[in-house]
Amino acid sequence: MKLVFAIFRYFPFGGLQLDFARFLKEGIRRGHAVTVLYDRWEGEFIPGAEYVQLNCRALSNWGRALDFETQARSYCREHPFDRIVGFNRMGGLDWYYAADNPFAEHVRRKNMLVRLLPRYRVFERLEKAVFGATGSTRILYLTEAQKKSFQHYYGTENDRFRYLPPGVAPQFVLRKEPEAQQIRSRIRAEFKIPETAVLLVQICSAFRTKGVDRVLESVSGLSPAIRDQVVYLVAGNEEPGDFLKLAKKLGIADQVIFAGPRRDVPDLLTAADLMVHPARNEATGTVLAEAAVCGLPAVCSADCGYAPLIRAAGGIVLPDPFTVQALTDALELSLRLPDALDKMRRDARSYSESSDFYHRTELFWKFIEEDDHA
User: Fold this and answer.
1) Which of 163, 245, 281, 285 is 20–30 Å from 177 (CA)?
2) How far apart are the first and last CA of the chain?
């Protein structure tokens, strides 16, 4: 088939972008001719596809998004394709990969004057082009909560949704001993982390959205006996800036590591003792599924789409609405009580060994290839 993959911005370490890359590589492997339409691209191109950069001239992000939609639809009219697959909200799609929660949900939290700004009106209009009840775009969704939310705001017909399970790359596996201990020792040696320290890990790019500041405040609020044991490592493609300043202000900078983007995330998860992910907004939280696969227990906010997965894997889901004190209490409980962390780890490993996390890409292509609507 001849297909378009439309993505506004690609960079190597985002969750949406990682899924996009996996889908694209598999489509190329299956012999499909894929043209990628994009506005901004960071990193290397994936061999085997054709790449077309659209000439979006607007200065604002919302203006560029609107221009991207206009030019993408024009390009697809001039160059007919069998399927048009979008990874950003826009009109004219056959399929949309819903990696994020509804923008309308975010807008409703703003006051009426803010909601009248062009940015909000444009992004909501682009979202309605996908999910509006009169539309025909099929939606690949990731959690039931996400689907219900889209239907709440737009009345999207039930038969337009197709569920995709957690999509974990094959390199994320539960490591057995003695390999796990070797990885643990190597990672700790690299960052000069004592063997006796409790290593908290967070994998993310949008630090504020994913709650890095919340973790810093929570760690600083632990009782001294527990706090002095903790090292908090953040891996992600963002400059620490204000978050490093906050760590210094809270007096815990010596216990915080901003590791930058990493290609050995499975090893980080194997080496860690607990994942923390108190996100403010998280449609799924693929890193939570990756942690579960690696047998790493997690503490996450109720705003994470994969919160039910973490609960099933023996982790802790913080109550909604979020408070820093609730996170502090959860960490204190997990680290103070004898055997608490070991039990969480055993539960996570048991869940990992009895669950399937690896077939999102195959199911994605099954839906696209068997589509009889286009």
Assistant:
1) 285
2) 12
Q: Give CA angle at 92 (90, 96), nearest 5°.
A: 60
Nearest of 224, 229, 201 to residue 300 by alpha carbon:
201
Which residues, in sequence order, are CB contacts of 49 under 8 Å at separation 6+? 5, 24, 28, 34, 35, 36
Among candidate residues 43, 42, 67, the one with its CA nearest the CA of residue 56: 67
Higher pLDDT, 204 or 205: 204
What are the phi and psi torsion angles at 313 (to 5°)? -90, 10
**Residue 241 CB neighbour total at 10 angstroms:** 10
Q: Enumerate long-range contacts of 336-344, CB under 8 Å, 24 or more apart.
A: 336/223, 336/226, 341/198, 341/273, 341/274, 341/297, 343/314, 344/274, 344/297, 344/314, 344/315, 344/316
How far is CA 302 from its chain centroid?
Answer: 15
Q: Which amino acid is at 5?
A: F
Name the helix (H) or strand (E) containing 39. strand 33-41
Rounded to whole angstroms, how far apart are CA atoms 46 and 36?
10
Closest to 301 (Cα-Cα) out of 324, 328, 319? 319
Secondary structure, 3-state, 267-305: HHHHHCCEEEECCCCECCCHHHHHHHHCCCCEEECCCEC
- Which residue is listed with tokens 């915080």? 256
Interatomic CA distance for residues 193 and 189, integer angstroms: 6
| Residue indicated by tokens 């055997």 | 339
List the beta bridge partners of residue 38. 7, 53
Q: At what angle do helices 118-131 and 61-78 cross, to 10 degrees?
A: 40
What is the torsional sign of CA 159, 160, 166, 170?
A: positive
Worst-scoring range by mean pLDDT, 41-50, 106-115, 205-214? 106-115
Buried b (16+ CB within 10 A) or exposed e, 218-238: bbbbbeeebbebbbbbbbbeb
CB 62 within 8 A of CB 52: no
Q: Which of 92, 294, 302, 270 is nearest to 188 (CA)?
A: 270
Tell me what pLDDT residue 270 has.
Answer: 96
